[in-house]
What we know:
Blueprint: H1 2-23, E1 26-38, E2 44-46, E3 53-61, H2 62-69, E4 77-80, E5 89-91, H3 92-102, E6 107-111, E7 115-117, E8 120-132, E9 143-145, E10 150-152, E11 155-161, H4 162-167, E12 171-174, E13 185-190, E14 200-202, E15 205-210, E16 212-227, E17 235-237, E18 241-249, E19 262-266, E20 275-276, E21 279-282, E22 288-292, E23 298-302
Parallel strand pairs: 1-4, 8-12, 16-19
Antiparallel strand pairs: 1-3, 2-8, 3-6, 5-7, 8-11, 9-16, 10-15, 11-14, 13-15, 16-18, 17-23, 18-22, 19-21, 20-23
Amino acid sequence: xxxxxxxxxxxxxxxxxxxxxxxxxxxxxxxxxxxxxxxxxxxxxxxxxxxxxxxxxxxxxxxxxxxxxxxxxxxxxxxxxxxxxxxxxxxxxxxxxxxxxxxxxxxxxxxxxxxxxxxxxxxxxxxxxxxxxxxxxxxxxxxxxxxxxxxxxxxxxxxxxxxxxxxxxxxxxxxxxxxxxxxxxxxxxxxxxxxxxxxxxxxxxxxxxxxxxxxxxxxxxxxxxxxxxxxxxxxxxxxxxxxxxxxxxxxxxxxxxxxxxxxxxxxxxxxxxxxxxxxxxxxxxxxxxxxxxxxxxxxxxxxx
Length: 304
């Protein structure tokens, strides 16, 4: 057992002696040295990962190489960028004096990394208007939005890389996640952020409010009234009435008469000598949510 310990100790001493002798000699080495880019990160956005190492062929005493590359607290090369959004790449000739200055004590034989490519954009802000995508709101069957949709605040400031900010429209549409809404709505909504890792909204939450009512549909046929037609030329309409659908709140329960509506065919607005498009001139405005009818062309013939 004692002989074994002596052998191990002898090997350890010999290895240590050899190691320290080697550190006192000149060596060449190919190293990957860490690099750091210094710029105002509050004014710029990194669009793709920046290079983090640079390959260098060096020559120096072993102690210097050991201290520069193998210790845990290695200071990276620092490259300062005054206008990072304008720098697309850094060449070997640009990097050489920076490396030589910051790695004093090491002889730089050759920089293997030819070019470092950067993708940094200027950070800008833009105020955009918020709008709810009302056409795709999930409203329960038999219900309708019966008030304007209010958004508070109705605009936000969007901040991010210049190319993306400039590509955005001045109106930003979003949609509440709630499904089958069947009652008045008033809730805080977190704005869904596109490119969430590089864009930010301020504020990122708004309150959306609107009224939802149960509705009823009614169908009614309204006769067409003639206007400005020549009195000395009798005509015959091919369609003398138009059927329309009107929608009201169910709580109103209103059924209207044909006299509550007025559909006019105006000769002065004709498309040809025998064709015009009817116009809805009167309807119960206060209680009506929607009126649906097909204002197609109405034709007539003359009777001599």
